[in-house]
Specification:
Layout (H helix, E strand, L loop, with lengths): L2 H16 L15 H5 L10 H9 L3 H5 L3 H4 L5 H5 L6 H15 L6 H16 L4 H11 L2 H6 L1 H9 L13 H16 L1
Helix pairs in contact: 8-9
Bound molecules: iron/sulfur cluster (SF4) (2 copies).
């Protein structure tokens, strides 16, 4: 991404983050590292949430977008709950995911593909359904990788931990209405 565009995008993105509830607190990050130490995914990340905040404040959006960090966030909220400055880090991660999807900036599309597969699965069943989720994900990435998961799938199935034919939740229509209202609200 050209530097000028990255700078413009970073400023635009930071304005969106500052507009979040408590988003302005990003400016008060102490760089204490509590967020990274609390993050269950940090070992798999190229750099943790502390460095995400530092990079954003330094205008280094490219660094953030070139890593898989954001897509490895599992939205556990540990960082948000423990941050002494009250920074809504999990929401920042969501904003970054949204930015990558909206602007087509994802360097490696596997995280985005998983997110789309998850959203479609929840839309269909009202909840996650592992068989559907993984079928969608592997068909869009590398179907051969699915073969390596077969032994695990069999073990889970034998223990009653995997549904071959997932069931829809009750009140799926209500969930769809709620999601449509949220989406409509987000467009305003
Ligand atoms: S826990 Fe909060 S204050 Fe500390 S580094 Fe992370 S974002 Fe900054
Ligand atoms: S919400 Fe995301 S970034 Fe924060 S601790 Fe959990 S996995 Fe890590």
């Amino acid at each position: 991404m050209p530097t000028a565009l990255a700078k413009e995008l970073c400023d635009e993105f930071l304005d969106d983050v500052y507009a979040l509830p408590h988003g302005e607190k990003l400016k008060q990050c102490l760089q204490c590292g509590t967020c990274s130490a609390s993050c269950p995914s940090s070992a798999a990340m190229e750099f943790g949430p502390r460095e995400i905040i530092a990079s954003l404040r330094a205008g280094m959006l490219d660094r953030v977008l070139n890593a898989q960090t954001v897509w490895l966030c599992v939205s556990c909220y540990s960082c948000t709950v423990r941050c002494p400055a009250g920074i809504p880090l999990t929401d920042v991660m969501y904003e970054l995911k949204r930015l990558e999807v909206d602007k087509g900036l994802a360097k490696d599309a596997t995280g985005e593909t998983m997110a789309h597969a998850f959203a479609e699965t929840v839309d269909r069943y009202g909840r996650n359904a592992e068989t559907t989720l993984l079928r969608k994900y592997f068909l869009r990435t590398n179907p051969l990788h699915a073969l390596a998961q077969i032994p695990l799938a069999i073990r889970l199935f034998v223990r009653g931990r995997l549904e071959i034919f997932p069931r829809k939740i009750k009140g799926l229509d209500s969930l769809h209405k709620m999601l449509a209202a949220i989406e409509e609200n987000g467009r305003r």
